[in-house]
Design brief:
The complex is a heterotrimer. By secondary structure, chain A is mainly α. Chain A has helices spanning 3-28, 45-52, 54-87, 93-105, 108-122, 129-153, 158-165, 170-199, 202-207, 214-222, 228-256, 259-263. Chain B contains eight helices and 20 strands. The chains are: A mainly alpha, B alpha+beta, C mainly alpha.
Amino acid sequence: MSGRSLSLYAVLYLVFIYAPILLLPVFSFNDNIFVTFPLKGFTTDWYAEMAANAPLGKALRSSLIIVGPVALISTSLGLMAALALGRSPIRFKAVIIGLLMLPLVVPTLVLGVSLLTLLRGVLGVQLSLATVAAGHVLLCLPYSVVILLARLDGFDRSLEEASLDLGQSAFATFRRITLPLMMPAIVASLLLCSVVSFDEFLLAFFLSGADATLPLYIWGSLRFPAKLPSTLALGTCLLVFSVCIVVLAEWVRRRGAPGSTAATGL
Amino acid sequence: MGPAQGRPGFYGGNRAMNGTPDIMIEITGLTKAFGTYTAIDALSLKIAKGEFFALLGASGSGKTTLLRLLGGFEFPNAGRIVIDGKDVTDLRPNQRPTNTVFQSYALFPHLTLAENVGYGLLNLRLPKAELAARVDEALSRVRLSGFGARFPHMVSGGQRQRVALARALICKPKVLLLDEPLGALDKRLREEMHLELREIQRAAGITFVLVTHDQEEAMSLADRIAIMARGRLLQIDTPRALYEAPNSREVAEFISNVNLLDGTCLGVDGTEARIAVAGIGEVRVSTDAGAIAPGAKVTLGIRPEKLRFVTAPDPGVNALTGSLRVVTYAGDRSHVVVEVPGLTRPLLITTPNRARLLSNADAVGATVIVTWDSAAAAILNS
Amino acid sequence: MIGLWHRSPAFRGWVLIAPTLLILTVMLVIPLGMLVAQSFWTQTGLTIDRTPGLQNYALLVAPEGAIYRTLLVKSLWISFASAFVVLLFAFPVAYFIAFHVKRSKLTWILLVTVPFWISYLLRIFSWKIVLGFGGALNSGLIYLGLIDAPIEALMYNQAAVILTLAHSWSAFAVLPIYVSLQKIEPQVLEAAFDLGDSALQRLRRVILPLAMPGLLAAFLLVFVPTMGDYITPSLVGGTDGVMVGNAIATLFGKQNDAPLGAALAVATMGAVAVLVGLILVAARASGLWRNRS
């Protein structure tokens, strides 16, 4: 494996990954309702159509409404669970961790169906964005715990003891020492849970009521060829947005380096 | 209370105490178990004010657990801890008049050295200028003036160690607990730190409790040392007493190398006792090392430096003949292993290098005579 | 109570983890338990008969249940192939980033994972665009004059599903492999050369065994979720590429036979568990995976 051929391979790999996705922007500006070559002409009509689309706007708002609470709740629960698993001598840790990872291993389809049976059939709960959010919290918990636990592990336990030793209360220790040092992981968890929730389709499909989330809207519009180009426009917007977030995160990180990342022990 | 605490020189060492010294720490009947494992077993101990006290033992002896119990990071299953007259057994670390220097230093990585050192003063809500002044003063006491703005990862291990010390001392605790603080430093730094610690302790007059597994460190720093094993105290004494008058085989062997001779007492003539040692015959021991009953089984411990090489033994003096096996040159002295027929283990002798010899090669295999004074052996129980 | 909170770290731990455990119990353990219970019932029309029995499982192993069995096996094959393909293609990239990239490692990692940030549906859909009858690949090739008529075999079959899944899940493979390659001490690699290994031998004898935890994690991270996927088969699989997820969804939906659906779901999860166990055992036995603490 020479360095040259590997770099070539890596570049080809990236091309393979990005090529289908880059078709989205390409065809979203194409003046043709069908997605075929050759390209007809440049137009922004599809974007206009997308912006004017009321159900799309509503679905987007619904997705955004649940993202915040889901990320916050998952991360908070994940933090408490990580502190319990990483610091306390409780028994059956292996069982608890197994349970926590179960949502990743059980097919989402099965989860969706079972939860639907529980919520509708047994508990008689009305399906709504709240039920979707609850399902998303379940899905996000494993990611949150893994991220936070990994950070906690790399963290000298004596630091918290030192803070107590120097006169701070347990709560002040949490506020001054634990929280700042966990912050990168907390942010990572919030971001990841947001992405997972925003993009999640299958559980939303089963657990949503009258309000559709954005993935549900996309699923609906995929069946109608006429709506296709504006869906592509939406996809392109999402792609650009994701790239911007990633670039922003990278820029923030670089500005903070080298001292601060090392200071926080990253 | 351990068996050694009734001995004369209980509060001996460098500090001369008049009458009964003030007790800073009193531990009674302390027990700590983790599940089915007993780490500390009904331990009792007194430490005087201003004393530099060391807890010495191997891993698993319970010394770190005892220190953590003193600091409030663990709570005992039974027993009480009293510091300066106040029962602190149920108090949390931030409520006790103790401060700890952790083994890993535990400097807060997201705070500057100045913020680290000033951390213990946060609760006092001092005006900024005064806080800064106190921090500067603390840093200069450990010779780190001007380093305040740096972060822990920017300074060396030795410097971090001193910051940890400054951070603990600035709180003016009644007791400073040190958990193997010098383990990560190289030899020269460690020796420098030994001197500094002694200086600081003397100047501040604070009671220090040091945990270490390094005998040399304990001996050079402490006024008194408690030897621990399996959650219990084996002997508490001054370094000199532990070295020259250990109360058991285990303590003798732990402190340093020692030659052991097992035998039975044949009788006592005035100030000397005659011991029959298996394999070599009769040996004389001075009785001021302790009373021996005739017929009793006895173990004698002789330190390597107490054995001498002679060309011809004086009559009435303990002497053994053997063959020289290994010579290890250590600069100012040599460690010599001598095989003696009749003894199961060879003798270890440490002898100063009085002559400028460039080689010992021809010495190996030679027949040698080893002698020692009757007062040179310690009598060990079991 | 306050005393117990301060004195007992174990008590603190249980209190901290209680809410999470509650959620897991109510939303995971109970529903799955109900699913298993459901698999022992029968449903005719809209009425459910709750007398427990093994009839659903009996059906799955009987000749009448052959379609389900073949479906299950086909799904196992598709997921296995996807995971394998992903690993094969991801490993060199992870290797490249771990050992051949000096300064911009994080940038490369980000580049590899950015596609993960786009909607899953749209990722699959982009392949639909590419592979379809009137899609980008076909129309592009016609436009370039390389073919006369669109190639039908590009989509609505197993290969399309495998390709789409491999593309979608690739980021999940690169990351774990990269992490475990990163953990290998550089001195170990140098020692291998020092002791006479060629680059290929070092790969086989040193790097692969040490990277095995990451490889296994990557494989499982792709294999397990794709088993339950039913969106990808719906969009690009056609009839040839149907997976067991579609069958389960239909049983719960149109076919109104929830108990059988539950039984099939349980059987699927069981099959996955068995296969995962076999893979782990095989990895151990092949000597390629030795636990280093």
